[in-house]
Structure formats: structure tokens, C-alpha cells
Specification:
single chain, 1021 residues, alpha+beta, eight-stranded antiparallel sheet, seven-stranded mixed sheet, 34 strands, 35% helix, binds guanosine-5'-diphosphate, binds magnesium ion
């Protein structure tokens, strides 16, 4: 190849070869070139060949390692360069395949066996969706993995904590702060690592999508080590389902609140959620630096702002503590030790206790200095009196600052101003005084990393946070009784329950799987769960009990082997061989039968084990997206991927409509967007077409049925009479929230309805069921007279009637959407005496039909989901927000200034169906200054009558407000492949239709009579 040089030497080449081959004028002086001309030609040819081959080789070798092909090629070429004469026929232009790919099999493929567009050997496409580390890159921690596993065996030193808070309040960065402390290698202060955002899309979007467990060994102020199991959860309201799942596995909640933004709608919802799970809350006021650098508040005002935010949190806790009358609401306050202050971005976090310790060591105070007492006086109305050197409740002089301002905020402000304001030499002096050592070159860093470096060195590790968690979050042993009573559905005195309450490692295995994490390849899942009793080890066989498992119906059960156990560390996993009660583990090999949550127990024995309560969410998946593979042949692949979506998103649902359309239901736009990303790229590699997103609807009634409806079974042996009427306001929500249950004693149920909703006791005690599910928002009541109907016979068919009612409620008659807020009353019944004549096949469909007819005669209405919207923006944007909302049928509930900030908070309601693109619109109208959160709030009737055939709908035109119900219903029916209109006659017996016609005739006659003074009413028909 070198010979190429003497035809067209490149400048670089020239320089290199100069000495040997060319003189200073550029004339060639190298070895003789006797027959250079034909060689040159020869070479030309060869080179062309070579190039061809080179290309071919790399083309053929696109799969494997192309380099090998090129090496072999050079070898062959070497012969051509030598002077020996090789006959043309002996020349070897191409290497044998064996030489290029030694040890390769030749496979002859039939031409037709494989499509042309399919590569013979499938390329391996590495999936790059996660930032998980490979084995060799694992960071070294300051403790050995053995130490961590030893702590795992000591549950009193364990704390299971859920890190929660509104979006962008700094949870992930706070986790970084803690994780960084456990690792040997220092992190680049200029970079936001976001260690627990392990998915590529989380990094790209700069927001957490999945909750991520991390187990860290951290020391408290006294140097005692604790194993903190922390779950970093997403703050976006769309992903509240992740938080619900996370809270299940925790014994306490660490609430992160932005010191400037304060309590937002999502913060309040999270507080409520944690209190429902009966977890204690501790608070971190993060982003304190914003008060200093952004709002530039004087220290005394910063104190008021912090205090205000803490009081906001306390007010929320008071509002949402269940049974607040019985139980005193928890109170949080810095002097109680359950509030810490932090600036995650600048690497510091302290509590009053840890600050007092820091203060003592900084001033070299002797051991007689009581840090705990000092800490208590650092908050509230406490003033330091210089003259007596003691603390007082009243200011010693009018300008005196509170102790918090004097001892904490002022020094903090000073460090900030010196670090930002001084040049390197002065800064070095200041830092030396503070006891902070920084390398000289670091003094020239940008302000942010410099602040981080200085402040993290000054404050040291976040021991205050560890103190707080150690003290205010119970260990798994201390929390076990309450946790088991709340979550375990089996008998509380059973062997399993008793073992769980004692955290007994020798008891029967009970493990609650709360969530599934997809492996980076999108194929398998790891089950994340908490051990309650017994010990789980690798290789063990376990029974996986699904959410539908009961002792009577054991179908939802499978036996699997645990093939791997590990502890989550954010970017990597630490393999363990066993896990004892109180610990979190990631299990491999058991995910197959699990859909959302599961209970794992011994493969043999412990037959009495019941399951842990399935998850409930405070968000409803009301947004709907129809999906279809671009290539119809890939449908099975998509169906399989949808199954995986259901597993990895706790609140997501998928279903197939009657038309064969697959729909995905999610809680918000971003939620659906992430699902689509996973569907297209992670779980399957396929192109998916989506229709415009829509929403779920509900069907309800506005009045009592105008006629008592009846239906006869096909064998004419049984008759059911029913009416429908709306439920009292608020009742549906109560049932859904589990405030009342049909599992209760009949009297207790009766009392509840009587006391809270004024039902008469007899009716209330005769509630048969809720529907469509056990806690569904509809009620079925047996309102028959014992004197008229044989109750024994009726009880005999109760199950069938309930089934028919629940089936009806699941798919209402208007457009197959669930019924909501309706009370169905059975008024009369004739039941065949012969059991063969009253089987389920006869009764179930009839019960459903009569429910439908009663429903249709009670002025049916469509209901749509409404979002609650919270917008945070500067004051001058409020008008623009009103405008954007108005265009989308939304309305503002309240707008108010946010205390201590230049922002306004606008609260509004917005129909979900008009919420698509709202956020973008909002940004456009406010030049990106508004920030909004939307979350499902309630169901509301759609204006208009869905059954009004007089409405003419024009395609491609928005329907006028009063035709919306009709518009939504017709479009939903079309999408689902149903007939255009509701066929009333389908649900009515001929006899009932007749009485209906009579009734209508009478009504019309009366109306006409009223108008014409009793004229020719008959002519109207
Ligand atoms: N000024 C300031 N910004 C912060 C602080 N902590 C986080 N941030 C910023 O807030 C944004 C969101 O942080 P992140 O940790 O992802 O919030 P998360 O949604 O609660 O996990 C990031 O852009 C951070 O730079 C802080 O202490 N001070
Ligand atoms: Mg986050």
C-alpha cells in the first residue's frame, strides 16, 4: 500500500517519507523504479479490485467483525507486491471463505423460505433504554456489600422510606446528595447526575417516570449506621400511581417541598395518600438557596417564608388525617426534629440537631455543651441575649433576630455572598476560616459547582436527614402490626399474620410484591416486594397468589422458582442470597403470573395464606388511546407488548372493544406518551398507529324511572320489576373510597346509610350489592315487600340477579361505558318454584335487561371526567389563563397570590376531553411562564340529551354545547362498532313497550289538552 505514495503523495505522507524517498526538491531518490510503469498499471487494477473487495468484505461482514476480512485481504495482497512471477491463473484475487471466517458453517437457504425484506441473519440491536451500569463499572462504596447485608439482617436498623413531593421539587437531586455520600469516587460538582433516573427517557425529559429503590448505609450525627431503603418517586401527577405503589412498601414518607413554591396541589394529594396509608411524614424544605439567590429575601423574611411553608404542610396534614377526631394529627416542626432544610443542588442538608452539632464542633465547644438543648432553641420565638448569654422567648432589644436567623440563616447568607462575591485570594482566606479546604484550581469554577463544593464541604454529610428518618420513621419491626392490620386481607390471628406482626424470619414466607420493573431489554420483569415474614432465598419455590386469589377460588395461583434476588441501588443491583422480614428485594423468575401486585408464600404449607390488599389509586385512567400495528401481521406482538405495559404501569389498563380495537387507558397525556414509547421501542419493536386520544365516559340517570319496568325470563317463568334513580351526591365516592362495604354486617351498612344519607333503615339493610365491582359506584337494593314476594325464593336467585346487575353496570346501554351513581331497586319479583326454571342462564340476562330498561326510563345522561388544574404563573399571565381555559369549556375556581413569592396560583376545572394540548397552549399564551398540573378530579354530566334524535351532527364541525352528549355518545358508539343509536326496543318486553306507549300518549294528550283547552289531542299522533 505504501507504493500508492509515489503517485499522489499527500501532504502528510510527504512529510513522513521525505528523508528516505525524496530529496529536498521533491525529486524521487528512492530505490530503482525500472519497470514502474507496468507495475503501476498492475497496481491500479489491483487497487480497484482491492477496493471492491474491501467494500464487499465489509458488506458481507456487516454482521460480524469487518476488521478480520480486511486483515486476510492484506495477506493475499502481500504476494502481489513481491517480485516472483505468478501466472495469471495462479493468482489469488480473493481469499477463501474459510480464511476470512475460519470455522464457519455454510448454510444454503432456500430462496423462498424467507422473505426478501428479512435479513438472513437478524442484526443484533442493542436496546439502549437504561443507564444501568455494567458489572465492571460498579462504583465502590464506603462500606462493603457484606456490611450492607449484615444490616439487612438487623431490622431495627432498617428504615423503609418513600421520597415524595411535587414535580421538580428536587427529590431526585436529594437522592443524589445521599448516594454521593456513600460512594468513594467524588462526583463532578458541575453535573446533575440524577442517579435514580435510570431510564434514558427519564434523563432526556429531566423528570422521573418510574419509582426507583435505593438501599444506602448512612450514618447519623452520632456515627451510628442505618440501612435506609429509599424509593425515589416521580412527582408528576400523571404518575401518582407509582407513588401509591411505593407507599405500600414503606413505613414513612419523606416529603420534599420547594421552599419557594410551597405546598402545591400534588403535594397535598401526596400527603393525603400517605396519611391514608397511615404513614408518618417527615419534611425536607429543599431549594432554600432560591430564597437567598432568586427571591433575595432578607434572612428574617426567609424565616417567615419557611415557617409559612411548614404551616401549610401542617394544615394539609390536619385536613387529611383520617379520623382526625380520634387520632391527633401529626405535627411537624423543626424543633421536633422532623423537618430538615436543604439545597440539593448545592449539596447541603441539615436539621436543627445536626446544625447544633456542627456549630459545637466548629467552635470547639466542650462536651458540656448540650447540642440537643441548643437545637431546640434554634426555631420559633427564641432569641439569644448576648448580655446574659442565654435564650429568651422575647427579643432582648427591638432589632434582635430570632435564633434561627442569627445562628443559621445569617451565616448561611454570608457563605453564599462570600463565595459568589469574592475573588480567589480573599475567598481562600474566608474558606480557611470556615475550615473548608478547596483546591486552588477549583476556586475558578462556575458559581454553581463552586457553591456546591464549598457548601457540601462546610455542612458535611447529611447526617441530620438520617437522624430524622431514624427517629421519626418506625423500623419495620415497630411498624409491622399496623402495616399487617391495614394490608393483610386474611384473618389477623392466623399463623401467617402473627408471624408477620413479629417480623419472624422463621415464620412462613409472606412477601408482598407491589410493583414490577422492566429489565432494560424490555423482555422480563423483576418483581419488587417487601418481605413480611419468613426468609426468601434464591432457588426457592414459591406460590404466587394473584389479586383474584381467595381461599375459595384458588385459580389465580402459580408456583414459580425464585431465580435471582437483589437489592436495588439505582443504577445497579446488588445480588443477595436471601432476604429477611422488613427488607425490600427484587425477585427474578416470578413475574410471569403477576399482573399488578401479588403475594408470595411457601410452595408447600401455609395453605391458609390470604393475599395483601390490591392497590388503589387516587388517579383514574380516564384518557384513552386506540392503538393498532401498522403491519396487521404484527398484532400478536403488539398484544404481548400491551400485556407488558399493564405490568409496568400500575394504573394503566388495556382492553379490546367489540370492534376489535385495542385501547390503552392512562391517567394523562404524558403517561400515555411514555406508554407509547415503551410499546414502540422497549417491549416491541414495531410501528403503532394511534387514533386521536379520547376519554372514558360514564352513564348515569337524572330522575326516577318514569315507569316501573319489568322483564320476563325467556322461559316465561320468572319476572323482575325494577326502577332506577340517582344516588345521593357524594355517595358514589364514599363507596369507591371504601367508606362502606358490603362485607360489613348488614346492620352496620344500614346504619351508615341511615346516618350519613338519611335512608330509611329497612331499605338500607336490604342493600344487596354495589356494582360493577365490589366497591363500585352503583347500588342494588331489594325493595320487595315480604308480604308479596317469597323472600326465600328471591334469595335463591340473589347471586344471579347481582351478577346481571353488575354486568349491566359494567357496560351501560348508551355506549357501553360503565354506569355510575345509580340506585337500582327491585320492587317486585315472581320466581319459579322449580329450581330448573330459575337457573343463572335465565335470570342473569333478564336482570341486566330490566336494569337497562329502568335506566333508560330515568332520563339517562352521559358523564365525562373533569381534571383539576393548578397553574403557577406570574401575576400578569392570569388573564391569559382565563382565556385559554374558557376556550376549552374550563372554568376557574380560584386565583390567589402565593405568599412570599411573585407568583399567582390559579385553580380551575377542565373537561378531560378538552385537555389535550392544554399545557402547550398555556405555554404559548404565557410565553412559557406558566407551569401547570392536571389531574383527574370528578365526573360531571355532559350538557345535552344523549338520546335526542333531533340533534343533527355535522362532520368536522364542533358540536354546539347542547348537543355534546349526543355527539360524544354517537362517536363513542361508532368507534366501538356499535349501531348508530340505542335500540330501546332491545331491552323492553312487548308488554312494557305497550305500557310505555300508553304512558307517552297520556302525557302528550295531557300536554295538548293543557295547551288547547282539551281539544283534539288524538290528532297529535
Ligand atoms: N435552585 C435549586 N434548584 C434545584 C434544587 N434541587 C433541584 N433543583 C432543580 O430542580 C429541578 C428538578 O429537580 P429534580 O431533582 O429532578 O426534581 P424531582 O422532580 O423532585 O425529582 C432540576 O432542574 C434541578 O436543577 C435546589 O436545591 N435548588
Ligand atoms: Mg425525580
Amino acid at each position: 500500500m505504501t507504493q500508492r505514495g509515489y503517485r499522489a503523495p499527500s501532504a502528510r505522507f510527504w512529510g513522513e517519507m521525505e528523508d528516505e524517498l525524496y530529496d529536498e526538491f521533491g525529486n524521487y531518490v528512492g530505490p530503482g523504479l525500472a519497470d514502474s510503469s507496468d507495475e503501476e498499471e498492475n497496481e491500479d487494477e489491483e487497487e480497484e479490485d482491492m477496493d471492491d473487495f474491501g467494500e464487499g468484505a465489509s458488506r458481507a461482514g456487516h454482521e460480524g467483525d469487518g476488521g478480520e476480512g480486511e486483515l486476510a485481504l492484506m495477506g493475499t495482497n502481500g504476494g502481489a507486491g513481491s517480485s516472483s512471477i505468478v501466472l495469471h491463473e495462479d493468482k489469488k484475487y480473493y481469499p477463501e471463505m474459510e480464511e476470512v471466517y475460519p470455522g464457519v458453517n455454510t448454510v444454503v437457504l432456500d430462496e423462498d423460505a424467507q422473505g426478501l425484506d428479512e435479513p438472513i441473519i437478524q442484526p443484533i440491536r442493542p436496546k439502549k433504554f437504561s443507564t444501568l451500569l455494567a458489572e465492571k463499572e460498579l462504583p465502590t462504596t464506603r462500606y462493603t456489600p457484606e456490611f450492607l447485608t449484615t444490616l439487612m439482617e438487623t431490622p431495627t436498623l432498617l428504615r423503609n422510606v418513600c421520597v415524595m413531593g411535587a414535580l421538580h421539587h428536587g427529590k431526585t437531586l436529594l437522592m443524589d446528595l445521599l448516594i454521593q455520600q456513600t460512594q468513594e469516587a467524588p462526583w463532578d460538582p458541575a453535573k446533575e447526575v440524577r442517579y435514580t433516573d435510570t431510564r434514558k427517557d427519564e434523563q432526556e425529559r429531566a423528570l422521573s417516570i418510574k419509582s426507583t429503590p435505593v438501599s444506602l448505609v448512612l450514618e447519623d450525627t452520632r456515627g451510628k449506621s442505618f440501612l435506609l431503603n429509599l424509593l425515589d418517586t416521580p412527582g408528576m401527577a400523571n404518575f401518582s400511581d407509582e407513588v401509591s405503589a411505593a407507599l405500600r412498601a414503606c413505613d414513612g414518607a419523606l416529603l420534599v417541598v420547594d421552599a419557594v413554591e410551597g405546598v402545591m396541589m400534588q403535594t397535598e394529594r401526596l400527603i393525603k395518600r400517605a396519611l391514608q396509608e397511615q404513614l408518618p411524614i417527615v419534611l425536607v424544605l429543599n431549594k432554600v438557596d432560591r430564597l437567598i439567590l432568586e427571591l433575595k429575601l432578607p434572612p428574617a423574611d426567609a424565616y417567615y417564608k419557611l415557617k409559612h411553608t411548614i404551616e401549610e404542610v401542617n394544615a394539609c396534614i390536619e385536613r387529611h388525617t383520617p379520623n382526625a377526631l380520634v387520632k391527633r394529627p401529626q405535627r411537624i416542626s423543626p424543633e421536633l426534629g422532623n423537618v430538615a432544610f436543604a439545597s440539593a443542588i448545592h449539596g447541603w442538608c441539615f436539621s436543627l440537631g445536626s446544625f447544633a452539632t456542627l456549630y459545637a464542633s466548629y467552635h470547639n465547644l466542650t462536651s458540656s455543651f448540650d447540642t440537643a438543648e441548643f437545637a431546640k432553641r434554634l426555631w420559633g420565638n427564641a432569641y439569644f441575649d448576648e448580655s446574659t448569654r442565654s435564650f429568651r422567648k422575647k427579643p432582648p432589644h427591638p432589632e434582635a433576630d430570632r435564633s434561627f436567623v442569627q445562628f443559621i440563616l445569617e451565616p448561611l447568607y454570608k457563605i453564599y455572598s462570600h463565595t459568589l462575591g469574592e475573588d480567589a485570594p480573599e475567598l481562600t482566606a474566608v474558606l480557611r476560616e470556615l475550615g473548608v479546604r478547596v483546591r486552588r484550581e477549583d476556586l475558578h469554577l462556575d458559581p454553581k459547582p463552586l457553591l456546591k463544593l464549598v457548601l457540601s464541604k462546610f455542612f458535611g454529610p447529611a447526617t441530620g436527614l438520617v437522624d430524622m428518618l431514624a427517629k421519626h420513621v418506625p423500623s419495620p419491626v415497630a411498624a409491622a402490626v399496623a402495616k399487617v392490620e391495614l394490608l393483610y386481607m386474611g384473618a389477623q390471628d392466623s399463623e401467617a399474620a402473627v408471624a408477620m406482626k413479629r417480623c419472624d424470619p422463621r415464620g412462613p414466607l409472606m412477601l408482598h410484591v407491589v410493583k414490577l420493573y422492566s429489565a432494560p431489554d424490555g423482555e422480563s420483569f423483576q418483581a419488587f416486594g417487601r418481605v413480611y415474614s419468613g426468609t426468601v432465598s434464591t432457588g426457592q419455590s414459591v406460590r404466587v397468589l394473584g389479586e383474584a386469589y381467595t381461599l375459595e377460588d384458588e385459580e389465580d395461583m402459580a408456583v414459580r422458582e425464585v431465580t435471582g434476588l437483589s437489592v436495588g441501588q439505582g443504577r445497579y443491583r446488588l445480588e443477595v442470597s436471601r432476604a429477611r422480614p422488613g427488607n425490600w428485594v427484587l425477585l427474578e423468575g416470578v413475574d410471569g403470573p403477576i399482573n399488578k401486585t401479588a403475594t408470595l408464600t411457601e410452595a408447600r404449607g401455609n395453605d391458609e395464606a390470604a393475599i395483601f390488599r390490591p392497590l388503589t389509586f387516587d388517579v383514574a385512567p380516564v384518557l384513552k388511546l386506540a392503538v393498532e400495528p401498522l403491519n396487521p401481521a404484527e398484532l400478536p406482538k403488539m398484544v404481548e407488548a400491551l400485556r407488558k405495559i399493564r405490568k409496568s404501569y400500575p394504573a394503566a389498563q388495556t382492553k379490546v372493544e367489540e370492534s376489535g380495537e385495542h385501547v390503552v387507558l392512562g391517567t394523562g397525556e404524558l403517561y400515555l406518551d411514555c406508554i407509547m414509547h415503551d410499546l414502540r421501542h422497549l417491549h416491541a419493536n414495531l410501528e403503532v398507529k394511534v387514533a386521536d386520544p379520547v376519554v372514558s365516559f360514564c352513564e348515569t340517570v337524572r330522575e326516577t324511572s318514569s315507569l316501573r319496568c319489568f322483564a320476563e325470563t325467556p322461559n316465561k317463568q320468572n319476572q323482575l320489576h325494577m326502577i332506577a334513580e340517582p344516588l345521593e351526591a357524594g355517595l358514589a365516592r364514599d363507596i369507591e373510597a371504601g367508606a362502606v362495604s358490603t362485607d360489613w354486617d348488614r346492620r352496620a351498612v344500614g346504619d351508615f346509610f341511615h346516618a350519613k344519607y338519611g335512608w330509611d333503615l329497612l331499605t338500607a339493610r336490604n342493600i344487596w350489592a354495589f356494582g360493577p365491582d365490589k366497591q363500585g359506584p352503583n347500588v342494588l337494593i331489594n325493595d320487595t315487600m315480604p308480604s308479596e314476594v317469597d323472600q326465600r325464593l328471591l334469595d335463591g336467585v340473589k347471586d344471579s340477579i347481582v351478577q346481571g346487575f353488575q354486568w349491566g353496570c359494567r357496560e351501560g346501554p348508551l355506549c357501553d361505558e360503565p354506569i355510575r351513581n345509580v340506585k337500582f331497586k327491585i320492587l317486585d319479583a315472581t320466581i319459579a318454584t322449580e329450581p330448573v326454571h330459575r337457573g343463572g342462564g335465565q335470570i342473569i340476562p333478564t336482570a341486566r335487561r330490566v336494569a337497562y330498561s329502568a335506566f333508560l326510563l330515568a332520563t339517562p345522561q352521559l358523564m365525562e371526567p373533569y381534571f383539576k388544574v393548578e397553574v403557577q404563573c406570574p401575576a400578569d399571565c392570569v388573564d391569559a389563563i382565563h382565556l385559554v381555559l374558557q376556550r376549552r369549556r374550563g372554568h376557574v375556581k380560584e386565583d390567589r397570590p402565593k405568599p412570599g413569592t411573585p407568583f399567582y396560583t390559579v385553580e380551575a376545572f377542565l373537561p378531560a376531553i378538552d385537555s389535550f394540548g392544554f399545557e402547550t397552549d398555556l405555554r404559548a399564551y404565557t410565553q412559557g411562564q406558566a407551569f401547570c398540573t392536571q389531574v383527574f378530579d370528578h365526573w360531571k354530566e355532559v350538557p345535552g340529551d344523549p338520546l335526542d334524535r333531533g340533534v343533527v351532527l355535522h362532520p368536522l364541525e364542533p358540536a354546539p354545547i347542547n348537543s355534546l352528549a349526543r355527539d360524544f355518545m354517537v362517536k363513542t358508539r361508532r368507534r366501538k362498532g356499535l349501531s348508530e343509536d340505542v335500540m330501546i326496543s332491545k331491552y323492553f318486553d312487548a308488554e312494557l313497550l305497550q305500557s310505555l306507549a300508553n304512558q307517552q300518549a297520556e302525557a302528550a294528550a295531557a300536554e295538548m289538552g293543557g295547551m288547547n283547552g282539551g281539544g283534539a289531542g288524538g290528532g297529535y299522533y
